[in-house]
Amino acid sequence: MTDRLLHGIDARTDDLVALTADLIRFPTVNPPGEAYRPCAEYIAERLKKRGFETELVRGEGTPGDNDRYPRVNVVARFDGRTPGPTVHFNSHIDVVEAGEGWTVDPFAGVVKDGRVYGRGACDMKGGLAASIIAVEAFMDAYPDFPGAIEISGTVDEESGGFGGVAYLASKGYFSKPKVDHVIIPEPLNKDRICLGHRGVWWAEIETLGEIAHGSMPFLGDNAVRHMGAVLAAFEADLFPALDKKQTSMPVVPEGARRSTMNINSIHGGQTEDFRPGLPSPNVPDSCRLTIDRRFLLEERIDEVKREVTDILDRLKRERARFDYRIRDVMEVQPTMTERDAPVVKAVAEGIMQVFEREPAYVISPGTYDQKHVARIGHLFDCIAYGPGILDLAHRPDEWVGIDDMVQSAKVMAIGLNVLLRGGAR
Description:
This protein is α/β, with parallel strands linked by helices. It is 34% helix and 24% strand. The protein has helices at residues 3-10, 13-24, 36-49, 121-141, 165-170, 223-243, 271-274, 301-318, 342-355, 370-375, 402-421, and strands spanning 53-58, 72-79, 82-92, 110-112, 115-117, 146-154, 181-184, 192-197, 199-208, 260-268, 286-295, 324-332, 335-336, 360-364, 382-384, 399-401. Helix 1 crosses helix 4 (121-141) and helix 4 crosses helix 11 (402-421). The N and C termini lie close together (8 Å). 48% of the residues are buried.
C-alpha cells in the first residue's frame, strides 16, 4: 500500500469535513439554480491556491440559464511535470429542494455522530470534497507526477445536465485528447464501481379536445377523459409487458433490472392557468402527461417509443374524437463501461487495497452525467465512484459518513496513482 498517500488523507480528515460542510452551506437548489456562481467561485479559489488553472464557464442558452440564475460551472486543471494522461474528477454542485421532514437545518452543514448532514451531503458534495482531498494528497505525495489532473463542479445534473456536463462536452471539455479518464463521485457506496446506467426516454403526451361550457360538456370534447383512456390502456397493456422484461446488466436495486415507466406529472384543463384555487367552468381542451421510461441494454429506443405510440394510435382508431400529440423531451441510450477499462481497473485496485476485497460492479437505475460524457464527448473510459448511500439522496436528513468519505478519498487517490504513475510506490 502507498502509506505516504493514505496517511496524507487521514491527516486531512478535518479539512475534508470542513470542506463538505462549506459546500453544503451554498444552497445550490435546482430548480431554479440558486447560488451556482458563489459555489463555483469557492471551489475555484481553493484550487487556485494549489496551483490549478481555473475557469468559470457559463452554459449560455441552456435551459434555465438567465442573468438571475446563470448556469456557472467551474473547471480546474493542473499539469504535471511531464506529459501523460489526464484524469478528470467531475461532480455536480446542484441539489434538489430540501422539502419537509428535516430535524436539522438542511443548509447548515451540521456535523454530528460521525456524519455530515445537509441537502447534497450524500448527493454529491461529500463526493466532490473527497475527490478534492484525494487530489491534494496525491499532489503532495508525488509532486513530480506525469500527466494532468482536472476537477470540475458542474450544474443542472438533477434536471438533465444540459447547462453543465452536456454544455461542457459540446465545447470539448470531455473529449480526447484533452481528457482520458473520468471519475464521477456519485453516491453509489464506497466499495462498488458503477459502470453506467439504464437508458431513459422522457416524453410529453398531450390529448386534444374542444373547449365548451362546463355545464354543457356534450357540446365540447373532454381532453382529460381522453387521457383517462390513455392511462387505462397503459395499466392494462403497457405496464404488465414492461414488468416481464429483464436485463443482464447488474442494475441495483433488483427491481430496476426490469423495464419501468413512471408517470411524472399530469396537467389538464384551464384551472392551472385560470385563477389558483378556483375551478374553471370549461371543458378541458388539452391534457398533458409526462412519462419517464427507463429501458434496458437489450431494448432499442425505436421499439421503446413504438410501444407507447402503438397504444395511442389504437385509441385514435377505436375512440371517438381521440387525438394526441407527443413530444420528445430527452432520450439517452443505456451505457456500460467495460470492466477491463483502465479507469475501472484503477479504482478496483484502490477498493482492493482499502477494503481488502473485490469491488461490486453495478449499474445505476437512473442516469447521471456519464450519459453526456459518452454520447457527446465520445469518451467511454468513465465510471461513477464515490462515498454515500444512494438511498439517502433527495430525502430528509440526508447525510454522508465521515469515515466513508475518508475511505473513498483513499480509493480515488490510489486510482489516480495507478492511472498516472502506474501504481508506483
